[in-house]
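[Automated response] Your request has been received and processed.

Submitted sequence:
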Amino acid sequence: MKTLLVVLIMFPYLTSLHAGVFVFNSLKTLINPTPPSVILTVLDSPQVFLNITRTTANTIYWSDFQQTSSDWLARGGGWWVSGSGHKGSGVSGQDDNGGIGGASQYYLNLPLNSYVEFYVGVKLRYSGTGYAGIALINNNLNRLYEISINPSGASGVLTIWSYNVERSNEWRLLTSSSNFPYTVQWLTLIIRYQYAGSYVRISAEIYSENGEHLASASAISTSTRRFPAQYVGLEIDGGSALFDDFVISTKNPTIITVTGLPSFASVQLHDLNGSLVGEALSDINGTGTLNVIADLITGQGEGGVLTVNVNTTPYSLETSFPLIGGEEYFVSSTKVFEGYADSTNTSATIHFFINYSGSRLEVIKLYPVLTEKFDVRLILESLEAAGGFSLIITLESSNTSATPIVIVNGTVLSPYTSTLSLYEEDLNIVVSELFFRNNYMAKLSVEYCLSNKSVCVSYPLILYGLGGEES
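Generated structure:
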């Protein structure tokens, strides 16, 4: 009984204790995360222009007359390649009245009767008082249309004639322009020929040496003796003349179109001697239309330099082939890098696609969040690279640069930068030299410390190399 009594007394106590264990009051806690003292953002990469390629085949024939060619045949006159061309050599001609219609022709032995429309562009320099220009000749070499300039003192006219077409074995003036001021200089003659079966339409423009439009002329021939042009030739009727930059094209040879450009970028074309050929501003679609009346065939036919200016930074592409009026060209480009920061802006990963040999490439910007002063530096933690990897990377403020991290041919010469102060002004992480042939991975730390070194924080920065094309 005594034992049982004790148990009965304790039972209510135990019941009360058990119930008390599961009675809770709710507790609410508000946690405010502390923002980082410094944040980083990955900057936009510039475009690097890699190559220029022709994307059309509008040119039927071109010649810069740098040497004698068997493509050309004489019909009267004396014709030879001289060193007196517009740039380099050109063709000199002297009339002897021995060609079609008593003039002299130097014609391209290339049948063109399969074309119902084409353009002809040529530069000419004429000091005579007769006629000099272009002849469109029939298959039998006994009829032609002549498009020529006719100087008289300080003025000249642009004329379109026919021979043995409107009148049998006679010349007929189809049209002439109004007078324009004339001086002996390199003029540019542009002709558009159209054959429609029932008529032949010829239109022409003449431009001065500096590209000023001087005159226009247009004529239609409906004679039953009209013909589809079989040959195109240079023509002189009186005296001597010089010719250069000859182009036959299905498009207007005064224009070069360049695609693949950034929107609203300035683009310039120079010959290899640095002379400006044409320039333009690209449209919203990245297409630039360059007027190349100054040089229908860039330079001496050996190539040119296309310069694209993006945000005042010039990028130049040199070609080993001539850029010819009437054609379209595509500029291929790539970003140097792409990257991203994490959601807290306290780490970043950068992928480099090509080598970079410029003076400076801004990759990351560091911003102070607090008003405290920090000392910042970069530290190279590890490197995985094979074959000729080189890198120079540093910190920059608006007025100074830290001593850089330097890696040359896979050898680390300096594993960290000196420190720069981050206070009220941002800092940039800048690459000035980057070369790699194979993929690589470089792990760095962005370390910032209070000026008394009591607290230091590191942000991871990973650089990857993918490819290694030359920039």
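Summary generated for your ticket: Confidence is low (pLDDT under 50) at residues 1-32. The two ends are 101 Å apart (CA to CA).
If you did not submit this request, please reply to this message.
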